[in-house]
Write a structure and sequence with these properties.
mainly beta
């Protein structure tokens, strides 16, 4: 999650103009943002093997929390299924957000063995995106009311492409007190892909209310540029049961 002004904002599912406030120094190769001192000192996280990923479908209720009270932002559904792409076994992570002013969809195919992104198709209102991945690069096209444009850009290792992918990967990491690792987010800002260094860290432990009752959770923070998002991961179920991001409008919360 998105975006319209931040990657995971209000749980939207297409990275169009995500983290628009991050700065990209001109001295770097096109599409790559310079790492900060904080992320540069972290060990890179190792992408989990794909076998333990499970097929399921989860629904998050989205709300904007402000002093005047909560405002519904619709629902976000994330479904993981087994699929095939060009004869390659894959996991398909499909997302859709409804009940909001701008409906969005996302479909991301990951190689089943190592969770490497292979293909990404998304829509955000009238904007459509299609992209393919090849080792350390991404190429594709975007079409909107302004026309059609092609793009190609480098990829940083271990890039997290969509909110659904991010959540599934975080669920599978070896979370523990003190866990910190460097990752990267793939953003498509005004038709141009960018790779943004990020940090994944366990911030604290917390007992949280879930639909199945109270659960002990890891609170995992994802930081990248000006964006900061928290994910509550149920220790027992290894499932993200809550998400939260602070925006200029207020706190955007997703609850399972």
């Amino acid at each position: 999650m998105r975006r319209l002004s931040s990657r995971a904002a209000v749980g939207a599912t297409l990275a169009i103009s995500a983290l628009a406030g991050a700065q990209e120094p001109s001295s770097n190769p096109p599409g790559v943002v310079a790492p900060t001192a904080a992320t540069d000192s972290l060990l890179p996280f190792e992408r989990p093997v794909g076998a333990p990923m499970r097929t399921d479908a989860v629904t998050y209720r989205l709300s904007l929390l402000r002093d005047v009270g909560p405002t519904s932002l619709g629902v976000r559904v994330v479904e993981v299924s087994e699929a095939s792409l060009g004869g390659t076994p894959t996991w398909l992570i499909a997302e859709r957000r409804t009940g909001s002013a701008v409906p969005t969809t996302d479909s991301l195919w990951l190689a089943k063995a190592d969770l490497v992104p292979l293909r990404w198709v998304g829509t955000n209102d009238r904007t459509q995106l299609g992209a393919s991945f090849a080792h350390d690069s991404i190429f594709g096209a975007m079409q909107s009311y302004a026309g059609r444009a092609s793009f190609a850009a480098p990829m940083l290792p271990g890039a997290l492409v969509t909110p659904g992918m991010t959540e599934r990967i975080v669920e599978m990491l070896p979370l523990r007190s003190g866990y910190r690792a460097a990752a990267s987010l793939l953003l498509v800002d005004q038709g141009t892909p960018r790779a943004l260094p990020a940090e994944i860290a366990v911030e604290r432990e917390e007992r949280t209310r879930t639909p199945a009752g109270e659960a002990d959770c890891w609170v995992v923070v994802l930081r990248a540029g000006a964006m900061e998002e928290r994910l509550w991961v149920d220790k027992g179920r290894r499932a993200v049961v809550r998400t939260e991001q602070v925006t200029s409008m207020g706190r955007v919360v997703g609850e399972l």
